[in-house]
Amino acid sequence: MRTPKITRLQVLETALILLETEGIEGLTMRKLADALNIKAASLYWHFNNKQALVEGMADHIVAMVAVDFQYEDDWSTNLIKITSQLRNALLKHRDGARVFAGTYIISDNVLRINNALIKTFIQAGIPVASAASSTMTVFYFILGCCIEQQAATFSADSDFINKESEFDQLSKEKFPYTWEAKEMLFANNYDERFLDGLKLIIDGLTNKG
User: Do residues 46 and 60 make contact, with C-beta atoms less than 8 angstroms apart?
Assistant: First the structure.
């Protein structure tokens, strides 16, 4: 009896499961093949190399973002909803933002998200070229927020304590303004930081010109 062929979807879903334990650096084609109980060479029917696999994973991670999105009259509300969906999708998987960062995927999923964001900025009265530029700014902002949050999540508590101690020693005398902002800088309030940053973008575009 022949073994059923492994599908592309099975490969991607298994890769994302493996990502939770191995992280992006520890994920290899060999480990993935072992998890699927197949030979590594069999993976190349679906993905030529790890980069192609990562791009497939990135596309799969955002597969449900902005699907059948219902636009409201207020463009800023639409922006918050779309970007929150994207952020949540990236945070759902360990190193999800790092998987997505640096990929240049042309797919229905990625183009749909881009289209939704560009449409939202055009809704705000921004020309298409500026809307596209604003979309890239928002992508960079979300990726940065998510990468920082996920890095902190997987850092040891003792390492965080050591960093706070180093911060105290270095900043208190030499960098007084940074020292004064310590409570905010070390706060575990990533949702608030995300919304604050998004509000700055919204306010900037609203007041532009």
Answer: no
